[in-house]
Every structure is written in structure tokens, then in C-alpha cells.
């Protein structure tokens, strides 16, 4: 459970840095996501989840 919380903490830190360093780019990215079709978001989410699970599995070994 600690590892999961550490992973969430890293994600929050990285996302926070992106908003702090490039708020305009993040605003454009969010606008682009809001306008993207649902199917594209689903596929992107599944790919990201699979990559994350794969990377976590590789790091655990």
C-alpha cells in the first residue's frame, strides 16, 4: 500500500510541476482533451493504464 501511495505522490508532484512551469500549455492540453472524442480518450486511457501496469511490474521484478 505504501508503494501505491508513493506512486500517487510522484504523479501529483510531476503534474504540479507541469502546471507551475507551463500553465498556458497545460490549459491548451486540457482544452484539447475536453474537445477530444470519447473513444479516443478511452483508448488513450487504456494504453496509459497498460503502460503503467507494465512498468510497475518490470520495476517490481
Number of strands: 0
Q: What helical percentage do the residues reach?
A: over 70%
Low-pLDDT windows of residues? none
Mean pLDDT: 94
Q: Output the structural class.
A: mainly alpha
What's the Cα radius of gyration? 14 Å
Helix and strand run: HHH
Q: Helical segment tally? A: 3
InterPro entries: DUF2065
Keywords: Membrane, Transmembrane, Transmembrane helix
Protein name: DUF2065 domain-containing protein
Keywords summarizing the entry:
61 residues, mainly alpha, 92% helix, flat
Structure description:
The chain has 61 residues and is an all-alpha fold. Helices cover 92% and strands 0% of the residues. The chain has three helices and no strands. Helix 1 crosses helix 2. It is flat, with a radius of gyration of 14 Å. The mean pLDDT is 94. Keywords: Membrane, Transmembrane, Transmembrane helix. This is DUF2065 domain-containing protein. The chain crosses the membrane at residues 39-59.
Helix-strand blueprint:
Elements: H1 2-21, H2 23-35, H3 38-60
Amino acid at each position: 500500500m505504501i508503494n501505491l501511495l508513493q506512486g500517487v505522490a510522484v504523479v501529483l508532484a510531476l503534474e504540479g510541476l507541469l502546471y507551475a512551469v507551463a500553465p498556458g500549455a497545460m490549459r491548451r492540453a486540457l482544452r484539447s482533451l475536453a474537445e477530444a472524442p470519447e473513444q479516443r480518450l478511452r483508448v488513450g486511457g487504456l494504453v496509459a493504464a497498460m503502460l503503467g501496469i507494465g512498468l510497475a511490474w518490470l520495476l517490481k521484478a
